[in-house]
Design a protein that fits this description.
With 194 residues, this protein is α+β, with helices and mostly antiparallel strands. 23% of the residues lie in helices and 29% in strands. The chain contains one helix and nine strands; from the N terminus they run E-E-E-E-E-E-E-E-E-H. A six-stranded mixed beta sheet has the order 1-9-8-3-4-5, with no helix packed on it. The longest helix is centred in the C-terminal third of the chain and has 44 residues. The N and C termini lie far apart (120 Å).
């Protein structure tokens, strides 16, 4: 039995809430018995129960409390309930229970805590926003620094290439076959007269 990622809920008096619960079985189900129970100061009171004959059957749910509606769907392995117009007396622990005879009668349960309040309190996120802003600013500064570094290295490499080209063209190694001026042609000794 699973009650979702967050096993508790804070809800305003007079609102409607869904208490989520789902089941899973690797070997399938046959006559899966499930129920929801409410812990009323240590006494477990049944909210609803039913038997799911197979994966394709629709359960006939018996409800024992007012303002409760079964909203689960067997096709989605969902056995969630809806509580209408909740009051402060509805706050507390709800247990989603299931037993699958195909799993040799093993019991499974999950607890969901409902907290009923007059009004939801406003959470001050100032510190969270300040931390997120500081981290975001540090990441942006680091990225800016890395971009500036890469751009500088790129410019320096282009300048170095240009300087190498200047050194190559002014090195005095010219085309001597064309007889260009300034060429270092091997000087041939002048023939001696005999």
């Amino acid at each position: 039995m699973l009650v979702g990622k967050i096993p508790f809920l804070q809800a305003v008096n007079g609102s409607t809430v869904m208490l989520p619960c789902s089941y899973a079985s690797c070997i399938g189900i046959k006559d899966l018995y499930f129920n929801w129970q409410f812990n009323d100061n240590g006494t477990m009171q049944k909210v609803c129960d039913s038997v799911i004959a197979s994966e394709t059957s629709v359960p006939k749910v018996t409800i024992y409390r007012e303002r409760v509606e079964f909203v689960g769907m067997n096709r989605a392995n969902n056995i969630s309930i809806l509580l209408w117009n909740i009051t402060f007396e509805d706050g507390g622990e709800y247990t989603c229970f299931g037993r699958n005879p195909k799993e040799k009668g093993r019991n499974h349960s999950a607890i969901f805590h409902l907290d009923v309040v007059e009004e939801l309190r406003v959470v001050d996120n100032t510190l969270t926003i300040m931390i997120a802003s500081a981290v975001g600013g540090a990441i942006a500064a680091l990225m800016g620094f890395m971009l500036l570094k890469n751009f500088t290295l790129y410019v320096l490499s282009k300048l170095e290439e240009r300087n190498k080209e200047c050194l190559v063209t002014s090195s005095g190694i010219d085309n001597t076959e064309n007889g260009l001026s300034g060429s270092k042609a091997d000087s041939k000794p002048t023939p001696k007269k005999k």
